[in-house]
Amino acid sequence: MSEVVLAARGLRKSYQSGDLEIEVLRGVDIALGAGESVSIRGESGSGKSTLLNLLAGLDAPDGGTLSWGGEPAQANRRATFLGIVFQSFYLIPEIDALANVLMAARMVKAPGAAERARAKDLIARVGLAERATHLPAQLSGGERQRVAVARALMNSPKLLLADEPTGNLDEHTGDAVVELLLGLCRETQTALVLVTHNAAYAAKTGRQLFLRDGVLNGTNPVDVSSR
Amino acid sequence: MPWYLYLACKQLFPSGRFPFFTAISVLGVTLGVAVLIIVTSVMGGFGYEIRRMIVETEGEVDVKATGYLSDPQDVLAQISATPGVAAATPYVKGVVGVQANGRPAYPIFRGVDVGTIERVANLGRFTNPRSAIANLDDDSVVLSSQLATSLGVHVGDKIEIYSPLLIEKLKNDEVFLPREFRVVGELYIGHQQLDSSTIYGTLRAAQELYGLGRSVHGIYVRVKPDVDEHAVVAQLNATLPRATTQAYSWMESWADFLWVLNLEKSINFFLLLFIVIIAAFSVMSSLLISVVRKTREIGLLGALGARPRDVALCFCAQAFIIGLTGTAIGVGMGFGVLAIRNDLVHGIARLMQRQETLRQFYQFSDLPSHTLTSDLVMTVVAAIVISTLAGLIPAWRAARLKPVEALRSE
């Protein structure tokens, strides 16, 4: 059994809507080993993004536990432990593609020659070596998402969380981005959680989970109860 | 460079551009700083000119007699022997009546010792011809330029001077005729008050006009370079007889005038500081708009691992950089305007044909300027601190944003 990168147990989250309390997650269990990939599908509003935000430590659960690499998830470890790819890319418009990739490294420390070299290497690996000095506004949607993928991998994270990364892309570009994500994660032994609506993309991951009624269904080879 | 400083620079000046919001914010601070520097420098210039005028016409210390000094030579010797004193010269000073070409005037007659006055005061610098004071005799005078103009006299003309003794004599039914003096030079100091109402003559002529015999009204003292005049004043007051004399530094002699000048400068500084404060509100509103426009970017920074404190620092840094840039340009602009101030003032006066009015109502024909380091430091520090403080509210709002909510915002 590989090293457990992500372990969540009994995650619960509810929102208040007027007088009504909506329970979005009702005890989600998930565990992921190094280099594993898992897809999470579900209907719109089923809580996929909410779950991903909890797994990323961006939001606090109402109940349950979350650990990254066997240690409790803490915001100050986020920059080095995990990378996130969003549906809307979220690149910083004032800086070029290379600087956007390097921004992830800046969050940890002032980048040196090694970090610059890695950023250039990642930009080249996502096929944008010629466009490294272009601003986000000068890039297409697919290119922007590839920059976002390179940024997510900049700090060599153990875990990559992708929230519908093809949602704003055409089918052809979406295919390329998903292949890129899966390929890079395989290559760098990075665990991947892919939230998607697309069954074909989900099928490319090691495991397929389905979020319904606030609970994750599907195969889960790592035994979280033993952690 | 920490990421928040890097991002602050990039957001303010993306790819070397100067975006509109940044330009407006920087311009506000620039104008505030430039105006503050111009006004404090001009006010400082007035103060500096006052000092130059006083010191170069009266020396740094004035030993005034309580009434008059009947034996000035002893006091002069005592003063000259005081450590730090470079030179001393006696004077008689008082109002006289003057008449020439049927026009009257009531200037101050300053009787000076021709042999020693130039060691204390640099009057030759202000006279035409330069040797006018040195060549004075008991029947000649030097008139200040505006007084000569108002009386309609020139070098070589004669004027009649009426002594205050005339009044005393009239009380006793005696006749006291005015004395006739020859004008041998004109004096132009650059101070309206002095240029319009001063006559220089010999000490003896003044003593005769006032009926003082050999007595004098006081002694001007020149202090050696790099010697504190206040220390010399203290020393003189400790050694000279207090019953008959009292030494004052030039600042003490002109304390009321200098206080008013300083008060005017302080009030001007305080009022003009509001330009910087208003500019700071512009900085604040620009940054608040930026927080709203960049809400999702702020969420991204949180997702990338930025701490709320660092997000706040990013916005504070932007306010600081705006303050720093605006202040730097404002200092340059301020000194640039100061460099051409006289051309500007004279140009405006010429345009409006008001050159004489300018000379009449202001103390100096040229606009003086003297920038004190303390004023410059105060302006720079105030502008940068106020601008940086303007970033606090946007910074606080940005830091309060929760990444997950910020990313979700429309």
| Class based on secondary structure composition and strand pairing of chain B | alpha+beta
Helix content range of chain B: 55-70%
Helix percent of chain A reads 25-40%
| Beta strand count of chain B | 12
How confident is the prediction overall: mean pLDDT of chain B?
87
Order of helices and strands of chain B: HHEHEEEEHEEHEHEHEHEHEHHHHHHHHH
Give me the count of strands of chain A.
10
- How far apart lie the N and C ends of chain A? 12 Å
Low-confidence stretches of chain A: 220-227
How is the largest sheet of chain A built, in terms of strand order? 6-7-8-3-9-10
**Rg of chain A, Cα atoms, Å:** 17 Å
- Distance N terminus to C terminus of chain B? 31 Å
Low-confidence stretches of chain B: none
Largest interface: A-B, 26 and 24 residues
Helix/strand order of chain A: EEEHEEHEHHHEHEHEE
Principal-axis shape of chain A equals globular
Main attributes?
heterodimer; A: 227 residues; alpha/beta; four-stranded antiparallel sheet; 7 helices; 31% helix; disordered C terminus; B: 410 residues; alpha+beta; twelve-stranded mixed sheet; 18 helices; 12 strands; 17% strand; elongated
What does this structure look like?
The complex is a heterodimer of chains A (227) and B (410). Chain A has helices spanning 48-55, 78-81, 97-106, 113-125, 141-153, 171-188, 199-203, and strands spanning 4-17, 20-33, 37-42, 63-68, 71-72, 82-85, 159-163, 191-195, 207-212, 215-217. With 227 residues, chain A is α/β, with parallel strands linked by helices. A 6-stranded mixed beta sheet of chain A has the order 6-7-8-3-9-10, with helices on both faces. Chain A has a 4-stranded antiparallel beta sheet with strand order 2-1-4-5, covered by helices on one side. Chain A is globular, with a radius of gyration of 17 Å. Mean pLDDT of chain A is 84; it is low at 220-227. Chain B starts with a helix and ends with a helix. At the A-B interface, helix 2 and helix 3 of A face helix 1, helix 12 and helix 18 of B.
